[in-house]
Amino acid sequence: MADGISISIADRLTADDLHRIEALLPQLSATARFDAERVLSLLQAQNTDLFVARESGRIVGMATLVTAPLITGWHGSIEDVVVDQSTRGRGIARLLLGAIIDESQQRGLSTLDLTSRPSRESALRLYESVGFVRRNTNVLRFAPQGD
What we know:
Elements: E1 5-9, H1 15-28, H2 36-44, E2 48-55, E3 58-70, E4 73-83, H3 92-106, E5 111-114, H4 121-129
Parallel strand pairs: 4-5
Antiparallel strand pairs: 1-2, 2-3, 3-4
InterPro entries: Acyl_CoA_acyltransferase, Bact_Acetyltransf, GNAT_dom
Keywords: Acyltransferase, Transferase
Domain N-acetyltransferase: 8-147
């Protein structure tokens, strides 16, 4: 399972790293648009950490941990989990999730959430296998219309 894979919180990104993230983005979302400046700003954001999975130094997966103080305690959210198609099935997503879960526990987060489309059955099985529980809730989104 995932031999030769290292997981870390990115503190800097090279031009090659940015190209790899750009290649991963359409595998995550058909509508997402790559913006190198926005990706680099993640590294400086106070409550956001970009976890990367590397094989021989090359990014093959990523996930983002977002933390926020709430009245009920510190809350975490996992966003943008994606592993390159060519390396799927090797346990890389499980390693990313494990690293994020460990980090969230070290930080004392009271909750850690993630969302996934119902059609992503294998992803849902993975999330449940590492301890996430489906909740009886609805996710609502407001997206302001552009000019």
